[in-house]
Amino acid sequence: MNQKSILLILTLLYCHVASFAQKTNIKDYVHIEITPDHDDWTYRTGEQASFTIRVIRGNIMLKNIPLIYEIGPEKLPPNQTGSSDLKNGSFKVKAGTMKTPGFITCLCRTEVDGITYSNYVNIGFSPEKLKPTTTLPEDFTKFWERAKAETASIPMEPLITLLPEQCTPETNVYHVRLQHYQKGSYFYGILCIPKKPGRYPAVLRVPGAGVKKQPAEMTLAEKGMITLAIGIHGIPQTLPDNLYANLSKGVLNNYAFYNLDSKDHYYYRRVYTGCIRALDFLCSLPEYDGENLGVIGGSQGGALAMVTAGLDSRVKALVAFYPALCDVTGYLHGRAGGWPAMFAPQNQLLNNKPEKIETSRYYDVVNFARFIQAPGYYSWGYNDPTCPPTSTFSAYNVITAPKQLFIAHDTGHWRTKEQDIVTNNWFCKQLIK
Which N-terminal residues, if any, form the signal peptide (predicted)? Predict the structure, then answer.
């Protein structure tokens, strides 16, 4: 191949990468900038807060355009509304304060050239003092010990199938089937094992909400760990993609509400004990080093990471991003609750019933967080509309085990590369000796 051909290939490759970068970093040309007057977005209860609001287009501040704002408790109706014409391009509004720990939201809307734009920011008031609204059932430990014993009594009967097309020079990748919950009922996942002979730490990666195929956890596998990425719905992980989408919109739609009126049959009972079954499998592998076992996940997976660590002392380290299922009864006490928002105003007609509230106490992440013994790294943002920080702080604050918290203030229900880098580095230090 001559130099001219090589130059042409490199040019085309550069154009492809640049085009991809542009497509994956699209954002609105007009942006509402809402800046709290505290750099850390955090205030003491009783302390007055304010926001400075600007509308930016092409890095230039716009003037003489309409702005509407709403301020109130997170996820609840606003208690302050107003407007401005942004005559000078910048507008400062007093947000007031909170007498008890929690979060306030400032939501803004504007219209530029016939297009409507919106943005919001949450600020915290003594979030480290937030206490959960849910309570611990007297028989909580007994209930879950019995559930774990029932799981242990069912033969695992693992079926492990090599996936040659997914293997790399350093890692073998397998599809795994584990019997669980009852005879003939299964859990599925994707297993990665380093090819180099030896004994390795093991990591369980638990999934976010939804019904989808779980990819292999290669990032940690390439650092020298056994990894198992599981699904939670008893569906093989090698089926056509459209099947998962059809199930998500069909029989598994709103699965987080299934059997909420029964603590013995609620959907997540099978899920939580399935995570323990996954640990059983990892610990049975001859390549496992017998000591260093971790669990990691985000959203629903963040919840499952904390639940698994709370149920099983074999876990030696966990990472949880914006955990769901935290303090779900918050809405019944005049503040935000965690995903799946089962007691939010729009769902109260269906779920605000004594038996469903009682069931939630056995599955709320807060009550598992009380029993976590392993060191953990936790991370979320203040602007998460799915797993509100009011709920995640309520769980984090009851943890007595060693813990670290990475707050990326302006993130929503997503995370930055810095959050992944920091937590992965910490995770590896905990597990790779």
Answer: 1-23
Burial of 352 (0-12, 13-18, 19+ CB in 10 A): middle
238 found inside a domain: yes
Please tell me the distance from the alpha carbon of residue 326 to that of residue 333, in angstroms, as a whole number. Answer: 14
When pLDDT is averaged across residues 364-389 and rounded to a whole number, the result is 98
Confidence of residue 17 (pLDDT cuts 50, 70, 90): very low
- What is the C-alpha separation between 18 and 80, in angstroms, rounded? 44
Tens of pLDDT, residue by residue over 417-429, are 999 999 999 999 9
- Answer yes or no: 90 catalytic: no
Beta bridge partners of residue 160, listed in sequence order: 176
pLDDT at 64 over 60: yes
Place of tokens 């230090």: 429
C-beta atoms surrounding 375 within 10 Å:
18
- State pLDDT tens for residues 20-62: 333 344 678 999 999 999 999 999 999 999 999 999 999 999 9
| Pair 182, 86 in one domain | no
- In this predicted structure, the answer to whether residue 110 has a pLDDT above a threshold of 50 is yes
**Close Cβ partners of 190 (under 8 Å, ≥ 6 residues apart):** 163, 166, 173, 174, 175, 176, 214, 215, 216, 217, 228, 229, 237
- Based on the fold, state whether residues 90 and 145 are members of the same structural domain: no
Our count of domains for the chain comes to 2
- Whether 125 and 194 map to the same domain: the answer is no
Domain that holds residue 257: 139-431
Find the CATH number of the domain harbouring 153. 3.40.50.1820
In this structure, are 153 and 95 located in the same domain?
no
Can you give the pLDDT at residue 92? Answer: 97
Say if 218 falls within a structural domain: yes
pLDDT at position 26 is 60
Annotated catalytic residue, options 299, 360, 379, 394: 299
Residue 232: which of 189, 296, 281 has the closest Cα? 189
45 and 124 housed in the same domain: yes
What CATH number does residue 41 fall under? 2.60.40.1930
> In whole angstroms, how large is the CA radius of gyration of the chain?
24
Q: Which of 280, 327, 364, 384 is catalytic?
A: 384
Instruction: Specify whether 233 is catalytic.
Output: no
Catalytic status, residue 333: no
Confirm whether 21 is domain-assigned.
no
